[in-house]
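Reading a protein record of the kind used here takes only a little practice. The record below shows the convention in full.

——
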Amino acid sequence: MSDNVMEKAAKAAGMISFLFLISRILGFIRENLSGRLFNRFETDSFIAAFIIPDTMYYLLVGGALSAAFIPIFTEYLTKGEEEEGWKVASTFINITVMLLGIFTVLGMTFAKGVALWEAPHFEAEKMLLLVKLTRIMFPAVCFTALAGLMGGVLNSHKHFLAPALGPVFYNIAIIFGAFWLGPIYGITGMAIGVVVGAIMNFLIQMVFVRKVGGHRFRFGYIDLKNPGFHRMLILMVPALIGLSATHINVWITNVMASSLPEGSITALRFANRLILLPIGIFASSIAMAFFPMLSGLVAEQKMDTFKDTLSLSLRSIFFLMLPAAVGLIVLGEPIVRILFEGQKFTAQDTALTTYALIFYSLALFAHAAIIMLPRAFYALQDTVTPVLASVVSVSISILLNWIFLRYTSLGVGGFALSFSIMGLINMLLLMEILRRKINGIRGNVIMKSFLKTLTASLVMGVAVLITAKISGVLSNRLGLSSHGEAAIIVVAGITVGVAAFFITAWFLKMDELTMSIRLIKGKLLKR
């Protein structure tokens, strides 16, 4: 694989990672405020009401855009047929806007019925709050999805700044709603922030789309006979079915968790957000940067380079996600304590969230890989295979949820363990099918890198565990507060852990070390 391609990917991913890091930090400030300022009665309802906006966003961004819009639109751009590409884009976007408008009106009108599907086991008072929050936040569905569509246009032009910048302002608006409106309107203030943030995200994408040729977009233009639009639909439908299966799992998990003690839904949400931190900062940025390249390589029929590029993306993801998983398992409790504990978020809430986090972290690397793997199929304009893999893994997860809930005392740990098993099965299925489809994915290279990374991660884990024990003893002798002790443990653990991991990786002569350093440094930002 050429250094030029590697350099481009590292630069793009580095810039995206930096903005994703800012967004994730703001996201944790948002979660921190919700946990501290509001009780579990309110946060459980808020999180349940978030299911629909989240589902619509991932269906469009992860399904319609990744599977259909970006590959087809990128193909037009690669062939120099930009005018025709914008006709297809105009049709797709205008139809989507119309359907989203109808969906939003129906959601707000029948919010009570929607709420019954979100958390049927809530008591009456909690259900009333859920209905209210669902109705308020439903317009966010439309604007968040539209922002995703605009981001798809920008990604096709290899412009990554705005799609990564929009979520930053989205989180700022929610923080504003929690901190300033929360004391006046309660959790409703935070819901208002969600809507305002979604609108801001959309407007930011619109400004940048104008700069990459958005003037070619035709408002109201719909050509249902356009062959490019037909190809988008053919690619999109299976992807939407596959992602629907994934979010059916999220929905069923929420339904089942609503029967557990109060605070369980919040614990699952916060623990899940913690594992999404490294995925969002690194895996998503790697996937976003590599995906247009993979689509372009397929269009140019450079399959050897396609395999090398895909292999590099997966090895880079594993190189960053395995140590992140080990770190979260070892340092989970002090991390949760620092991020969330205080005011209305008690030590009991911390223990419950940490318990779920351990099970979620077991297959963090797999869930990071399945951010990238479906995009490889989408670049090949195959959207059926990811659907089949998703349906199989989700079906197993739903069955495991039921088994763990009915026959074990795992509680939220059972749901988190089921999520990890689902990710592992999904990843293995996709890798095996892709290997057969394109006659190899450089599997030996990937496995060799994985084992080296796992070795370095375990060395790191031992070093972090020893450091945490020593830090805890010193903190007790110094008489530090609970949060002070946690801070010392986390800072010392991360410092020693990062050093141990990279030294071990260097000793093992891992090629991924170079790519990851470029990614973390974000050379584009430096320039």
